[in-house]
Amino acid sequence: MISDYFRQRSPAPWSWRWSLVIAAWLMLIASVASGHGVAGDDKAFIEQSTGVQLAPFIYLGAKHMVTGYDHLLFLFGVIFFLYRLREVGLYVTLFALGHSVTLLYGVLSGTHVNAHLVDAIIGLSVVYKALDNLGAFQRFLGVQPNTKAAVLIFGFFHGFGLATKLQEFTLSPDGLVANIVAFNVGVELGQLLALGGILIAISFWRRTDAFQRQAFAANALLMTAGFMLVGYQLTGYFIS
Description:
Blueprint: H1 16-35, H2 40-48, H3 54-66, H4 69-79, H5 85-109, H6 115-133, H7 136-141, H8 147-167, H9 176-206, H10 211-239
């Protein structure tokens, strides 16, 4: 059961090493939050593209997901305590279904949402998953949210987050549907590539004696990163 041991034991004693880790983590998240988007060369290509360009848009979608640290932080939290590949596949499928629907709908329908608010909700999804991994909802509220439903719902918001990046560009209607579908396929491929690396790293980590001691701190850091993403985006919303 996910995070059962958090309900049975207190967290490991803190140390100065974790303070250094936190400082490095927060600096990384702050720099990533300010830089996350589409690179200048990629932006120029997207705006100048006409006709069907399947391979380039697949590449751009994969690149965006691999460098989309807000999405990867959420997925890291989702699979943190999943030990069976069947469970990993189920949750990843739910997330992919959610963000694929809203990515395609948002771009093709022209539905606009405020990018800062959507990205703030994406930050909250990271906070939610960290709290869920820590068993906080059961411990303090006496309820356990439906994790599968939460992953699907947050997937919708992650998809809108991707859509807002594409809505910033002037997209040619010639080949638009095929190109956006190709971009979404690239997102899925990038997600699988990134998840493969994360799963390998976590698998090795779980084999160490330190995992049980460090899992609490790792999810505390994940929650802190989520709050930083929320704060950054809300600040952008109020000053824009």
